[in-house]
Amino acid sequence: MIAPRRFLPSISALLSFEAVVRLGTATAAAQELNLTQSAVSRQIKTLEEQLGVTLMIRQGRRLTPTQAGLDYVTQVRDILNRLAQASVSARTNPTGGTLNLAILPAFGMHWLAPRLRDFARDHPEVTVNLSTRLRPFTFAGSRFDAAIHFGHEDWPGVRYLPLLPETVVAVCAPDLLPAPLEDARDVRHLPLLHLETRPRGWARWLSSLGVTDEPPGGMMFDQFSTMAQAAIHGLGVALLPTFFARPYLRDGQLVLAASPTTQSIGNYYLVWPDDRDETAALASFRGWLAQQAEPATAG
């Protein structure tokens, strides 16, 4: 059960309320909805009694929403629109639909996006919409069906599909270091670039080489993309995921500062809420994504 029935107004009441707020009078709303004026007024009165809140006040011939009414109608319109879209999708595309996916910028741009063409070819019945979210959020009340998560299985109320671990490599501009260091530990003598979400990244990378000293500080960035641009412009050495660094290395914008790679602090996952039924669109996407992840997890 989604919620107690006493908190679920009828669609007719919500349509009447939304129309009166938009048009200003019960008469105009009744004409639009093909109802009588008294029927519209009764719907609004019933809605107010059900919620225990005054939504409209009469000012002359016009009905004006209270502040509570204005706040409520914003959410009502969103819900009615989403319900209409879901109904159209169910009628016209019962085996597909729309998947709203929250992505991490670097992973979405450099790992997921190049593969989505294959998904679109294999599943033309599904439309995938992408939006950026940097941190976990609450699925309830959001428009997202699923998300890409990095770290550990610590997102409450979701199910997980492991995709791949994050393996990082040290890179820099060719002008800063034209060839990889013979001794990777010497990277400590170069300016190091740091990422806010991986504050111990260099410490772990150096620890894998037997270095226990704290790495030197340096410029801090909030995203891989801005840190990569800083490295391209010669500001220092960056630790980038291999899937992210690969096109820059191929194009010669960046070179290896040292050859060792290490695994980062976590893994990438597809997550989706565990309290919702899985849609056809999500099932198709999850199945396809599991196949894409198999080579990465196997390697």
From TrEMBL:
User: A Pfam family name for this chain?
Assistant: HTH_1
Q: Name one GO biological process term.
A: DNA-templated transcription
Q: Which GO terms describe its molecular function?
A: DNA-binding transcription factor activity; sequence-specific DNA binding
Superkingdom of source = Bacteria
Arranged from A to Z, the UniProt key words for this protein are: DNA-binding, Transcription, Transcription regulation
- Record's InterPro entries? LysR-type_TF_proteobact-type, LysR_HTH_N, LysR_subst-bd, WH-like_DNA-bd_sf, WH_DNA-bd_sf
**What are the residue boundaries of the HTH lysR-type domain, all occurrences included?**
9-66
Could you say which protein family the record assigns here? Answer: Belongs to the LysR transcriptional regulatory family.
This protein's name: LysR substrate-binding domain-containing protein
Species name for this entry? Sulfitobacter faviae
Q: What is the lineage of its organism?
A: Bacteria, Pseudomonadati, Pseudomonadota, Alphaproteobacteria, Rhodobacterales
